[in-house]
Design goal:
Blueprint: E1 4-10, H1 14-25, E2 30-33, H2 40-44, H3 47-64, H4 80-104, E3 108-110, E4 114-118, E5 121-124, E6 129-137, E7 141-143, E8 156-157, E9 171-175, H5 179-190, E10 194-198, H6 210-223, E11 226-228, E12 233-237, E13 240-243, E14 248-249, E15 253-256, E16 260-262, E17 272-273, H7 284-296, E18 307-309, E19 314-319, E20 331-336, H8 341-346, E21 352-358, E22 361-369, H9 372-384, H10 389-393, H11 403-410
Parallel strand pairs: 1-2, 1-6, 2-3, 6-17, 8-15, 9-10, 9-15, 10-11
Antiparallel strand pairs: 4-5, 5-6, 7-16, 12-13, 13-14, 18-19, 19-22, 20-21, 21-22
The chain binds flavin-adenine dinucleotide.
């Protein structure tokens, strides 16, 4: 085989496979190394499998609450093995799609571990050498390990372990209330698992706007998800957990979701690093944008990377948080979902749409609502293109939709 390529990529997650497909579309010869499965964490251990399980949990909960909507159900049962079966099928279908796209694009895929020797040489684990005009490292990240909470994969679980539980536990403690911790808290709670969250920061979802964090805490209380903030695990003794506030818990298992560590040792000059491995914003869409920026030269504003936390209701934000802005330097508009017709129709009235503006332009938006993951994109487009609040008021928003909350908010800025 000819081992000379224009581009050599290590890691076939969203960053790596996007780079490969776009480079190939430009007529470049590409070799892509993947030691596990095409699709990376996003497809195999992250975004997609969690959203599939989350959806099953939401269907289950909705059916249990169906009477509220005038629908009577009886003998509702949950077969968790089928939930996993569906998750696996979803992942496989999507993986096959990416594999086919790579094949059609004539990307050479090598299913093995690879190492970068220098800025133009990749060594595959069988010692085969690949010469590449350019090397891209997109090796991603792994669950962060913290002292005292090292994964034993039975009691102390990582976000990888939790995906394949043979059955649901009766109770769980989740350490960390970032996007992953909150998402799993909602999944377990929907399935009826007694769920407790422990967070070291003063609020849940510490990276969110403070008002959003508080709203989530209110929702957790309504949903009966127990949580402790400004708290950490002090001691674990024979599966008995003592928290720093001296609370004692005996959950059946613990999910440790305290962040992710980039899969990197030393950076090599002349190599391009993209995605989670950079340790910047560890989101799939950020990884994809970094790939496209480098290969296609399409710039993007990193500060306008939307964040989404899945579950009911979704939480999404973009741009500045209120706590980032100088007092009196901005205008704030808050629309409660209880003022939105569609929210009442859907029985989803606990939420808010908050928009922040400066000098007639939106600088940040924070949404706790059904469809927040899509709503946030409207605002992202507006901010990125400098569309003024007055200009946005000229846009027609359909009724009844959650997007009307955005429209209403404009008139309070
Ligand atoms: C539970 C969970 C839920 C998530 N949900 C979301 C979400 O909803 N939305 C979102 O945007 N993001 C989400 N993320 C984050 C998202 O998965 C990552 O940001 C994304 O996968 C990063 O893509 P990447 O290509 O940089 O790296 P990865 O997806 O980590 O891919 C890196 C790949 O490189 C391979 N590799 C590593 N070293 C080598 C080597 N030496 N040789 C060959 N191959 C190698 C790995 O096997 C892996 O397949 C979630 C993450 C988790 C854990």
């Amino acid at each position: 085989m000819n081992n000379n390529f224009d581009i050599g990529i290590i890691g076939a997650g969203p960053a790596g496979y996007t780079y490969a497909l776009h480079a190939s579309a430009q007529g470049k010869s590409v070799v892509l190394f993947e030691k596990k499965q095409i699709g990376g964490v996003c497809l195999n251990k992250g975004c997609i499998p969690t959203k599939s399980i989350l959806h099953s949990s939401e269907v289950y909960k909705q059916i249990l609450n169906a009477e509220k909507f005038g629908v009577t159900t009886q003998n509702v049962t949950l077969d968790y093995s089928k939930v996993l079966e569906r998750k696996n099928k979803t992942v496989e279908t999507l993986r096959k799609g990416i594999e086919l796209a790579l094949k059609n694009a004539k990307v050479t895929v090598i299913n093995s571990e690879a190492k970068i020797k220098d800025k133009n040489t990749i060594v595959e684990c069988n010692a085969d050498i690949y010469n590449c005009s350019k090397i891209v490292c997109s090796t991603g990240s792994s669950p962060k390990i913290i002292k005292g909470l090292e994964f034993d994969h039975e009691f102390l679980l990582s976000s990888d372990d939790i995906l394949n539980l043979a059955s649901l536990p009766k109770s769980i403690l989740i350490v960390g209330s970032g996007a992953i911790g909150v998402e799993w808290a909602r999944i377990f709670n929907n399935f009826g698992v007694e769920t407790t969250v422990v967070e070291l920061a003063s609020h849940l979802l510490p990276l969110a706007d403070a008002e959003v964090s508080k709203r989530l805490e209110r929702i957790f209380k309504t949903e009966k998800i127990k949580f402790f903030t400004q708290t950490c695990v002090k001691e674990i003794n024979n599966k008995k957990i003592t928290l720093s506030n001296d609370e004692i818990l005996q959950p059946e298992m613990v999910l440790v979701a305290v962040g992710r560590t980039p899969n990197i040792t030393d950076k090599i000059d002349g190599v391009t690093y993209i995605g989670d491995v950079t340790g910047e914003i560890q989101l799939a869409h950020y990884a994809i944008k970094q790939a496209i920026e480098d290969i296609d030269g399409i710039k993007f504003e990193k500060g306008l990377t939307p964040s989404v936390v899945y579950g009911t209701p979704e939480i999404a934000w973009v741009g500045k948080r209120e706590q980032d802005l100088e007092p009196d330097s901005y205008k704030k508009s808050l629309v409660l979902l209880s003022a939105i017709g569609k929210a009442h129709c859907d029985g989803q009235t606990d939420g808010l749409i908050k928009i922040l503006s400066q000098n007639g332009k939106i600088v940040g938006a924070h949404i706790v609502s059904s469809e927040a993951s899509s709503l946030i994109q409207q605002i992202t487009i507006a901010i990125q293109n400098g569309i003024t609040v007055d200009k946005l008021k000229e846009v027609c928003f359909p009724h009844p939709t959650y997007s009307e909350g955005i429209y209403d908010a404009l008139f309070k800025l």
